[in-house]
Design goal:
By secondary structure, this protein is an alpha/beta fold. The chain is built from 14 helices and 22 strands.
């Protein structure tokens, strides 16, 4: 029996205090590997969101936005240090709640959380305006100022990491935050609020309201006291948020869905490409917005590459995410598992060849699915066009470079892409031609706190990570001083 770290059960974090939801309602968060309830948590609604926004506004208009940049830096560093001390607890909670392998939770997700926190801890003192030349006798300069209250709505696939992608730059810039984590995976958000409290973050600077998106999330988007919404999730939800936020003209940053092309040319290192293809689609059970779900392969090496991928999948361990040897854990929920199964049925019905996988692995409990690959996929098929968000790879042959680019860009999405080739010139040409916010060359799923990430087309707008993320959480003021 695994010992679950202590969690603030059935309470919300508002105004620096742990408080009960006004409705008194709660909901269960469930371990997707065992189908057992981990904890009962507070179900916040519009009234709780209003309390949180009021607390965030009070903190913003009080000492927080006026605090010296160096002091904000110190607080972010302290939060990172406390997270590092409790990294095993956070990794375990993430694995229990989201089903991801424990090796990934600790060595990847939590490590990247620390990197992002420390990167933005170093930036507050670099946020500045500039002086401008003017036509007449005037002194003109700009100030870069925080927006105010930021509503962060985060997904269930990388619960803490994608929360910190938003919280860290928002706080670094001097904003306050109301965080609505995904109802399926709220545990690390609550634990993170605990260490922020321990670090001495002023009351109301970070608030966490758990609850359904239809109540708490909707209330956050429509609340007139919120200045900006930062959202990561599916494209249809992003469109709904954009419509609702338009009523109050909130600023938005949306990191949405993807159907990313992973393009392999005949001159590529096929062993490396096979390894990259497996990592690109089966990492985190394919529940990744930038997953390389469309494998575009030059015709002459198509069969050879698929054979190498199959060889790797034979050694792929699906099972208990707490086992360090496990490569892939369960999908997030029963509903999502059934959705993925529906896409597999669609693929076979439309004439694609099921090369491997396509079924549950037969484990006694949990929402597990085997790594699945289709060949003979036409670009018009449902599995080639819609975001499955699961461990399903669609292999599509192409003739040459222009054909690869055309097929790669033939999607409503534009979050990421990859190119595998030994030809440097070809790599740069194809990378420029692809309509995607991130293009990897001879690798996949590489991230760094310094490198901006975001999408083209219906994959959203705005860039997270890097210095560029500060643009999402600040606004410019121009000041004119008449010297005549």
């Amino acid at each position: 029996m695994v010992s679950i770290p202590a969690i603030r059960s059935k309470q919300l974090f508002i105004g620096g205090q742990w408080v009960d939801p006004l409705s008194g309602k709660s909901f269960a968060t469930v371990n997707p590997a065992t189908e057992e309830t981990i904890a009962e948590l507070a179900s916040g609604d519009a009234h709780d969101i209003d309390r949180a926004v009021t607390a965030a506004r009070k903190a913003f208009e009080g000492p927080w936005s006026k605090m010296a940049a160096s002091e904000r830096s110190k607080l972010l560093w302290k939060i990172a240090d406390l997270l590092e001390k409790k990294i095993d607890e956070f990794a375990l909670l993430e694995t229990l709640d989201a089903g991801k392998p424990i090796s990934e939770s600790k060595a990847v997700d939590m490590a990247e959380c620390l990197s992002v926190l420390r990167f933005y801890a170093g930036l507050p003192q670099t946020i500045s305006g500039s002086t401008l030349p003017s036509q007449g006798p005037a002194f003109v300069y700009t100030l870069r100022e925080p927006l105010g209250v930021v509503g962060a709505i985060t997904p269930w696939n990388f619960p803490l990491l994608l929360s910190i992608w938003k919280i860290a730059p928002a706080l670094a810039a001097g904003n306050t935050v109301v965080h609505k984590p995904a109802s399926l995976t709220p545990l690390t958000a609550l634990k993170f609020a605990e260490i922020c409290q321990e670090a001495g973050l002023p009351e109301g600077v970070l608030n966490v309201v758990t609850g359904p998106g239809s109540t708490a999330g909707q209330a956050l988007v429509t609340h007139p006291g919120v200045d900006k919404i930062a959202f990561t999730g599916e494209t249809s939800t992003g469109k709904s948020i954009a419509r609702d936020a338009a009523e109050t003209l909130k600023k938005l940053s949306l990191e949405l869905g993807g159907k990313s092309p992973n393009i392999v040319f005949a001159d590529a290192d096929l062993d490396a490409a096979a390894r990259g293809a497996v990592n690109g689609i089966f990492y985190n059970a394919g529940e990744v917005c930038c997953a390389g779900s469309r494998l575009l392969v030059e015709e002459s090496v198509h069969d050879a590459l698929l054979e190498k991928i199959q060889g790797r999948l034979k050694k792929f361990t699906v099972g208990d995410p707490l086992d360090p040897k496990t490569r892939m854990g369960p999908l997030i929920s029963k509903d999502h598992l059934e959705k993925v199964e529906g896409y597999v049925r669609s693929g076979t019905q439309e004439g694609a060849k099921l090369v491997c996988g396509g079924a549950r692995p037969g484990l006694p409990k949990g929402w597990f699915f085997t790594p699945t690959m289709f060949s003979g996929v036409a670009p018009t098929m449902k599995i080639a066009r819609e975001e499955i968000f699961g461990p399903v790879l669609a292999a599509i042959p192409f003739k040459d470079g222009p054909d690869a680019v055309a097929k790669g860009n033939d999607t409503i999405y534009g979050l990421s892409a990859a190119v595998w080739t030994r030809d440097v010139k070809k790599a740069h040409q194809v990378a420029r031609a692809l309509r995607a916010g991130t293009v990897w060359v001879n690798t996949y799923n590489m991230f760094d706190a310094t490198a901006p990430f975001g999408g083209y087309k219906q994959s959203g707008f705005g860039r997270e990570l890097g210095r560029e993320a500060l643009d999402l959480y600040t606004q410019l003021k121009t000041v004119w001083v008449d010297l005549s």
